[in-house]
Write a structure and sequence with these properties.
This protein is 27% helix and 12% strand. The protein is α+β, with helices and mostly antiparallel strands. The N and C termini lie far apart (46 Å). The strands form two sheets. A two-stranded antiparallel ribbon has the order 1-4. The radius of gyration is 17 Å and the shape is elongated.
Length: 153
């Protein structure tokens, strides 16, 4: 018997990724990577109801995901909570957004960017909230990181 935990607790930070990011209604101000996977939400359980099977908790298919930026603030805790931590798996995201963010390629890109930001924080002797985004962005682009598919930087 194997237990499969798809998601659990997540950090709540200054920026919480939501389905509005996935659909393009909200654009990240400080993207460090890009998400491209659809909102893959599985049902909690199947229930027999009125001679039909009801899929409780299934995400409606009408939410169309476009490539979206993962904001730096979504992987950094609030400064009053912690100043030396990056959270690239249990990042600040709603249930629906996490259904997209949870893919390994997205985690790898986001973690690579967080590692670069960690070096900046160490080199500049600042906390993770104090990393200068414009400098980080330039370095990420120089390293070949994709921050946006819309502009293909």
């Amino acid at each position: 018997y194997q237990i499969y935990v798809r998601e659990a607790r997540r950090m709540v930070s200054e920026v919480v990724l939501t389905e509005h990011h996935l659909t393009g209604a909200v654009i990240s101000d400080h993207p460090i990577s890009v998400g491209t996977y659809g909102a893959d939400i599985h049902e909690i359980q199947r229930i027999a109801y009125n001679h039909m099977i009801v899929r409780e908790g299934k995400q409606p298919a009408h939410i169309r995901t476009i490539p979206y930026g993962i904001d730096y603030a979504a992987v950094v805790p609030s400064a009053d909570e912690c100043t030396n931590l990056f959270v690239t798996f249990a990042l600040s995201a709603s249930h629906v957004a996490f259904g997209s963010v949870r893919m390994e390629p997205t985690f790898m890109m986001t973690s690579q960017s967080a590692a670069t930001a960690a070096v900046f924080a160490l080199d500049h002797q600042t906390n993770v909230q104090g990393v200068e985004y414009d400098q980080l962005r330039k370095r990420l682009l120089a390293d070949g990181q994709i921050l946006s598919l819309a502009h293909r930087e």
